[in-house]
Structure formats: structure tokens, C-alpha cells
Amino acid sequence: MSGPSYRLSGQFFELCDCWSICPCWVDEPPDEGRCTGAFCWSIAEGTIGDLDVTGRSVVSVSFHAGHRDSGGQEVTLFVDDGADDEQFAALAETFTGGNGGPLGELGRLMGVLQGALRVPIGLSTEGDHLSITVGRMVSGDGAVLRGGRDDEVTELRNGRLSGVLGPRAEVGRSSTFRIDLGVQAASIEVAGRAAMRGSFRYESAGEP
User: Fold this and answer.
1) What value does the mean pLDDT take over residues 185-206?
2) Is 151 exposed, middle or buried (0-12, 13-18, 19+ CB in 10 A)?
3) How many C-beta atoms lie closer than 10 Å to residue 50's C-beta?
4) Quick one: pLDDT at residue 1?
5) Which residues contact 149 (CB under 8 A, 6 or more apart)?
6) What domains can be seen in the chain, in order of their start residue?
7) Between these two residues, 71 and 38, which has the higher pLDDT value?
8) Distance of alpha carbon 95 from its chain centroid, rounded?
9) Residue 165: pLDDT above 80?
10) Is residue 155 helix, strand or coil?
11) Start-to-end Cα distance in the chain
12) What is the Cα Rg of the chain in Å?
């Protein structure tokens, strides 16, 4: 049995409790030996097989200790509550790596999938600012960093996370970031930590 093809594009956000830049982007272990964060995708255009998933949003909240490759990530996946049952199932499978392709790494690195839920999700960006909300469980705000002679946005290109997020990421810092999933390992409330945003485009012909 083969997984379906997919084509997805849109905007990504990433916030975590590491200091900016999150060491996972440069293939290093997380600050303080552990990382709790949220990977967020706002899909501007997308299909999985013949299914249209344009306009849907997905957030993956993960926790791992040690290096990302060996930490055995604990993941809770959220799909926005505008998704119907078919969209929800297809997005959950794709964004946990089950359909291979560029997002296959998400499955290979997962230790435990704690669950996949359908909830209200808000992902927005305006000017230098970004914000995320996932029901009452996740919220965060941040802004990109500017520097250099022309006060341009600070960017990171071709980092370790470029394959599962995007090839070019704007580097930012959170003003607030909170996760409360009812378990200690995935409950944080921090400020002034890592935030990233950028564009993604994933294409997969389908996995055998």
C-alpha cells in the first residue's frame, strides 16, 4: 500500500523554550538539555492525493530531551476545527510523517504520538510580528529581529530544520509563549525565547 502524493505551500512559525536561535536549527542539542516547542503550518494552497486542504492549519507540539535525532520526541498534533473528518485524517497522517516525502522526518524522529486533536487554531503575521493560538492550550507572540547596516530582517538559510519547515527562516524572539497540555513535560511559560517564521513548499510523489 502506498501513501498519497501531496503538494502543500504556505507560512510556517516555530516557537520554543530555547534561546534564539534554537540549536535544533544548527544541528545542536537544545539549551538546558531539553526543548518544548510548537511547529505551526498555515496552508495557503494544498492537496493530499485528490483532497483539497487549502486554508487549513496544523500545529505540532513536541518535547524532547537531548539531541533532536535521539531524544524520542513526544508529540501532540492539532488540526484546526474547520477541517472535516477526511481533511483531519489526511493532515494528521501527513504531518506526523506517515505519508513520507519532505515531512517523513517527523515520523522517523517521533517517539510517542500523544494524540491528534481538532481545535480552533489562529496563526497570523503582520509586519514584523507573529502570533499563534491553539485553543486554550498554546499561545505565543513574537517579532522578527532586525540588524545590519540596512536594518534588514535577520535570516537563517539551509539549517537543519529547513526540510520540515522552510529553506529560509526569519529569526525572531518571543514576547510570550505558553503551552499547557496538562502534563509537566509539555507545560511551559516563557518569554524572550526563540521564534522563527518563513514560507514552506512541500511536494511528494507518494511513498511506496
Assistant:
1) 91
2) exposed
3) 7
4) 42
5) none
6) 6-204 (2.40.400)
7) 38
8) 9
9) yes
10) strand
11) 7
12) 16
